Automatic annotation (TrEMBL):
Signal peptide: none annotated. This is Amino acid aminotransferase. GO terms for molecular function: catalytic activity. InterPro entries: Aminotrans_IV, Aminotransferase-like, BCAT-like_C, BCAT-like_N, Class-IV_PLP-Dep_Aminotrnsfr. Its cofactor is pyridoxal 5'-phosphate. Keywords: Pyridoxal phosphate. It comes from the Bacteria. The lineage of its organism: Bacteria, Candidatus Kaiseribacteriota. Belongs to the class-IV pyridoxal-phosphate-dependent aminotransferase family. It holds the Pfam family Aminotran_4.
Amino acid sequence: MSQHCFLNGKLVSLSKATLSVHDIGVLRGFGLFEALRTYKRKPFHLGDHLRRLKNAAERFNIQVPMSDAKIARAIDALVAKNVSKNKEANIRIILTGGEAIHLIEFRPAHPTFYILAEEFKPPLTQYYQSGCTLIVQEFQRQFPEYKTTNYIQAVSLQTKMKKAGALEILYVSDGLVRECSASNIFIVKRGVLVTPHKMILEGITRKVVIQEARRAGIRVKERDVSVQELYNADEAFIASSFKEIVPVIKVGNRKIGNGKVSPTTTRVIDLFRAATHLNHQGRTLINVVL
């Protein structure tokens, strides 16, 4: 199957897609992105992702060159072209400042904007059944509330993470748990979900987990979480668009709870999967008015 992307308003073969060597996203790392996946080949909470992208673009004075409706149609076209029937897709939407001026300035109305879609490949089943390990890194992302393309810390730690047999990198700062490199984190203590609320990206999957847990009568607290509190938690899990909900049984060299996948996390997994099933049925979880 020939692969395509949507680049600056056009559907283009990946083999022919090019970016300028003077793009400020390449020269200076000045770029934003969103990442999401499909269920029944429809993007999950697309409206929420696009709102977050627009908020970031406004903050950094980059114009998003397409309407939500046109972006939604472009995604549908890419999924149809790039992903085999009965398969799901992961989608990345990337926005940079476009061609650099004097190597460090840009024209807000002339961005580079492209969309990628490829077959979704979930993490190994063993992580959901037996839980995962996180490595710990003292680090605070710059502009944590936005998805910028600056992943230099996460990229540089991939080898260390894999050697440790870990699935994710947990960022901590000033004695507090922040977030993982590409996930949010929750702990469970006496049946209550607790998740960090400052200096983090407020993920869309995080939002759905909070919403569905509260609907189900599970208490949720959004507040500071100390590293020691994480180590003393009964359970922990991470949440992201591509990973969904993954139990955490070990952080660094510390076992979490009994070191096994436990009941509250299992219930949250079920609640989240039920929410994605509602997306299958055409409920308003996509949140885009076409």
